[in-house]
Amino acid sequence: MLIAAAHCSSSTMRKARLRASQPGQDLPPGHCDLDRNPGGFVRVSEFYGIGRSQGALDFVDVDITDDVPVYIDPGMIRHLPDDWGKECLLMLTTFFDSVLDAVRSDDKKRARYLLGHLGEPNETHLGFSSGRSAGRGFGEQMGATLAEKLAASQAAQSGLIEDLEDTAFFIDKVGKDIVSDITTNIIRGPLIAYTQQMASVFGIPLDEGVASGAVWNPHAQDWEHGYVRLPIAGDRKLLLVPKVIVRRDLHMSRSEYYRNHLVPALQNEELDNPSSRLVRTLKDGSKRVWVGDIRAHYGSTKPDVTRESLLRPDIYANYREIKRNSAPPPISHEELSDVSNAPLPDYEQLLADVLQTPAGKEFAGEYHRRIEGLLTAVFYPSLVMPELEEELHAGRKRVDVSYTNVAQSGFFAFLGRHKVKSTYVMVECKNYGKELGNPELDQLSSRFSPLRGQFGILACRSFADKDRFLKRCRDTALDYRGYVIALDDGDLRELVTDVLEAVNWEPADPPPAEPEVQPRVENYPLLFRRFKALVN
Description:
Helix content is 43%, strand content 12%. The strands form 6 sheets. The protein has a 5-stranded mixed beta sheet, sandwiched between helices. Strands 1-8 form a two-stranded antiparallel sheet. It has a two-stranded antiparallel ribbon with strand order 2-5. β6 and β7 form a beta hairpin. The longest helix is centred in the first third of the chain and has 22 residues. The N terminus is likely disordered.
């Protein structure tokens, strides 16, 4: 029995098209409103009445019938510092190593078996398809075809292909869509766990006994099947995907490699060759090799790139190493809005929701959820994958919200550069109508550890004596018990003001005499000032 939408039948929902929810018109989880204008996407947030738009959600808010043209990028997963990312990376590396071992040992049966379990991952609704989400045909036949292509590939045999991303460079008809599909299949287990976590947070109903599909076991290096709890949207199971691992294009780019690495190497070879016919002498006596001549002589198709790279494996190995060592930027709010037609974050409304929450224990849960929604939007893409009510010490302690820090610039990157352990950033929410004291501060600092992190945010409503509490935070830092920044309602207003200033910034017209420096969202000047007050 399908329970995805408690008060709407699956057949009716397939016909419904819902407009994005407006503030103040939120629906209870599991409900749908069939009276709305049937003219657009039916997003996950709409289908389940979550009452949030894409900016305040950690997962890609996909349409439940069609695809959103973004792709899971293994290059993003490679740079995730948290346990979830490490688990995904272990699955990717063990799976592809198993495939390459089978190919290089000519174990065709094993290669076909491994690749034959890569089915069509329709349940994520990512990629591109015409009409109803239908995958890209990566079923058993494509798996067998890929096994044959890898077996015949000199790039695979020689070691030029090491990772899944390499196949998009050197295997015919493998592009970002196929790489994304394969990745989805391999990390299906962690995606199931992530979906269940998000379902718990937002009250999304889960069906019992849903076939998991093939799940890769990195320890046994084998596929496993089972039954799990998953949401059913319409008449299909649904897998939610963290937006931090998707991109419009892969981090590893064949065009970038060709243009910026292979072509310059070929130009230098021609310049060093006294008998080269591609070298042109200019009027000033200097010698040049034009890119167009390189393209015409060597070619630029995938077989051409493969042939020339096999002759010069160090060039591709150097490019791959550069990309491995440089984390790609996560997809931005603006990019995701552009590709999915989702609204940009309404920071002012998210702030208003927090400020309008009555103080007191009765509304603590509501305040907690609204703080998480605001901070999820404000701190993206520096902080991602919020986990609510995370259990520590076998459940003996809990932290209201914990985020994974993936910042590449700005305040949260500054913490890492200055040796402040902040792989996870913890947030405690206190909806008190009274003064906070040492117990609340000690509660958060007791959650810190060298492994989890030593930085946290204490969100609260107000202070009778703010300076006194900030001095307590400084005492905690000076005693080496971690770094706590306290933010009351007024501080949250300032935080949102700074974000809006960066988002809405435009250069002066006419330009001033002194060059302007564009403010960046991830700088969070209030946090910088508070942190410096802790340590100076």
